[in-house]
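INFO batch 0412 | record 1 of 1 | parsing
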Amino acid sequence: MLLHRTRRRSHRFILCGLLAILVTLGVVGVSVPAQAEEGSGVPGTPPPAKDCNKNTMDIEYLYGGVFWICKCYKIAGSEYDYWKWKRVPEKGSNQRAKNTDFLTASLSTVALINSSINHTTTYGNFGDTAIQLFGISGNPINRPLGVRIIVGKWTGSDWQACHDSNWQFTQTDRSVYNWHNPADCGTGYYRAQSAGKYWSYTLAKWITTSWVVTASLCIHPPCGLLAPPE
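INFO prediction complete | emitting tokens
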């Protein structure tokens, strides 16, 4: 049950072409989500996994007061592609955002880390991160989760931390968790660096993902410095 935007964003992510295999394996469905009133769903929780498929790919949907976009991901060396909902950064007029994500797999668990740096006139300037945890078949997995985001500012020769959230953890088992930090250290180039953790009950320890680093974003131009190398 989703309210969609007609605008597509196919230019930012890798699209996958193995739908027939996924349908055969039962990994994805082919249902088309119905429209719902704004506010449906639990805030911060993605739409139903079955509604992310070729029919909804690259279209933004409003669910639980948050916009989500259906994307297809592939892990190198894996026989599976993954259709997952990705949270879209909050909107504001004249927004410019640099966004990236990363999949990591451990045993039968897959973690999707989203990281973005944003400039909006409505919500201000901020870095945003989220972790989504799911199984090999795409089903959500609930575990204790943790995220960390470092909003960095370019000094002209190196990246310096503007804000570091340190590790922030859920109080209960969840499949999605997000956090954001302001980018308010003055005019300049900013980036977001994010990572996630989840608790493995099988291994009885925390599993930590790799860092996900966005491209740089000039906030309040002109930034007055040579742009950092990407």
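INFO post-check: Residues 1-88 form one domain.
INFO record closed
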